[in-house]
Amino acid sequence: MCGVVGIYGRHDAVEAIYTSLLAIQHRGQDSAGIATLEEGFHLKKGNGLVLNVFNAKNMARLKGSLGIGHVRYPTIGSLGTEDAQPFIVNTPFGIALAHNGNLVNFFELREKLIKRYFRYLNSNCDAEVILNLFARELSQEPLGELTPGSIFNALDRIYDEMIGSYSVVAIIARVGMLAFRDPHGIKPLVLGRRDSSFAIASESVVFDHLGYEFIGDVEPGEAVFINLNGELVRKKIRVAAPAPCIFEYVYFARPDSIIDGIGVYEARLRLGRELAGAVRKAGIEPDVVFPVPDTARAAVTTLAEELGIKHREGLIKNRYIGRTFIMPTQKKRKVSIRFKLNPIRSEIEGKKVLVVDDSIVRGNTASEIIQLIRDAGASAVYYASYSPPLRYPCLYGIDMQTRGEFVARGKTVEEVERIIGADRLIYQSIEGLIRGVGMGRNFCTGCFTGEYPTPIPPRMAEQIEAQRLKVKEEV
C-alpha cells in the first residue's frame, strides 16, 4: 500500500506536494519521492519518512507548476532506494509516474519488457513496469501533437496487459498531467480543484490540507487528463464491476477521508454497531470497553452506545512510533508494540475489559496487548475485531501476501483465542463488515473470503509470495 499525489497549476507545486505527502504519510513509511516539471524534470526520492527525505535545500530545486509525489511501503520490490518512486523515462516526451497498488502479473510483464522490447529496468518496482508499458504504447501514437484521444488509446492497450490494482498519477512533459485507475477501482484515487489548479490524491484528506474543493473520485477504469491550458478531459477506459478494497475502511485510510463516496469515519461507526451484535451474541458482560488506538476509536463509540457500557481510553499511544502493521518484519513489529502502547492501570485494574481492534493479522499485536492489560490487573480480557478473520493473501498491495502470516488461517476462532491469550475472542461477520462499510455496495474482500475481483493465476501468486518472503529474509 502506498500513497500518491499529483498537483497541477500551482506556482510552486512542491510545497503543495510536500504538505500532501505529510497528510498521507500513514500509507507508507519506507520511502518518499517528488518529481516536478519546469524546463525539465527535477527528482528527489529516498528511504525514510517525508520529514527525513526532504529539506529546504533539496526542495528548492524541485521547481515547476506540475508535480507528483509518493510515499511507499514495499509489496512488490525490495526496501532499496532503487524501488522508491516516482520513476522517469525520457522518451517519448519524458514521463514521470507514481502508483499505488500491485500488479499481479508484474514478473511476467517485467520479463516481457526486457526480453521482447529491450527496455532496461533499474528496479523491481511495478511502477517502473507501468511507466515503460505506457511509454512504449504512447510512442506508437502520432507524436507531433499529442491529444487526449492518443493518450487514452495508449492506455486502452496497456489495460489489456495489466492484471491487478493500480491508481496512477503521471506527468507527460510539454503535454500535461494524467491519472488513471484500474477497472475495478481497487485502490482509491480522488480529484480536487482550487481555481485553475487541480490535485489528484489517494485520499480526500489532502484537499482539506490544501484548501481544494473535493470534486469526487476518479472512477474505476477511468482516466483523467489535464492539458497545459488547464482543460480537464475524462474518459472511461474500461467498464467492470467496482470492487474497492474494503480494508481501506477497516484500517488503512485516515478517518477524515472520503473514498468512493463513503466517509471512512462513518463506516467505522457503523462497524461498531454491527460488532455490538456479535458481542451481545457471545454473552460476555464487560465492565469497560476501550480501543486499540487509533483506528478503533470510532467503532468503540457506537459499540459502547449499543451495549450500554462505559468506554474509556485504556491504552495510551506513543505517537512517535510508526504503524506497526506496516513495519517490514515481525521482529520490528513486536519490539515496537511495547514502546508504542502503555496501559492506564486505573481504568483496567480489577475490571473485565473488552478491547476492540480493527483486525487481527499475525496475532503478535493482539497477544502483546492482552498481556499488557493482564499485567495492569484486569480480571478478564476480551478481544474483539470489527473485521472478520484474515485468512487469505492480499495480492493488490497490502503487506499480507504470504499465507503463513495469518494467525487465523486454517484455525477456528477458539484456536486463535488460545494463541493470543484472550478470555474470549469475537470477530465481526463478513455480512456485518459489508453492511457496515458499504450498505449494500460491492468490495474486494479477498483477504477475508479468498474471492478476488481479478484473475489470480496460481503461478503468479506463488511468485509474489516467494519474492515477498525473500525481502523479509533480507531485512
UniProtKB/TrEMBL annotation:
Keywords: 4Fe-4S, Glutamine amidotransferase, Glycosyltransferase, Iron, Iron-sulfur, Magnesium, Metal-binding, Purine biosynthesis, Transferase
Gene Ontology biological process terms in this record: 'de novo' IMP biosynthetic process; purine nucleobase biosynthetic process
EC numbers for this chain: 2.4.2.14
CDD domains noted in UniProt: GPATase_N, PRTases_typeI
Catalysed reactions, semicolon-separated: 5-phospho-beta-D-ribosylamine + L-glutamate + diphosphate = 5-phospho-alpha-D-ribose 1-diphosphate + L-glutamine + H2O
Cofactor (UniProt): Mg(2+); [4Fe-4S] cluster
InterPro entries attached to this UniProt entry: GATase_2_dom, Ntn_hydrolases_N, PRTase-like, PRTase_dom, PurF, PurF_N
Main EC class the enzyme belongs to: transferase
Residues that hold Mg(2+) according to the record: T295, D357, D358
GO molecular-function term, one example from the UniProt record: amidophosphoribosyltransferase activity
Domain Glutamine amidotransferase type-2 stretches: 2-229
Keyword Iron set for record: yes
Similarity comment text for this entry: In the C-terminal section; belongs to the purine/pyrimidine phosphoribosyltransferase family.
UniProt-recorded name of the protein: Amidophosphoribosyltransferase
Source species: candidate division WOR-3 bacterium
Gene this protein is translated from: purF
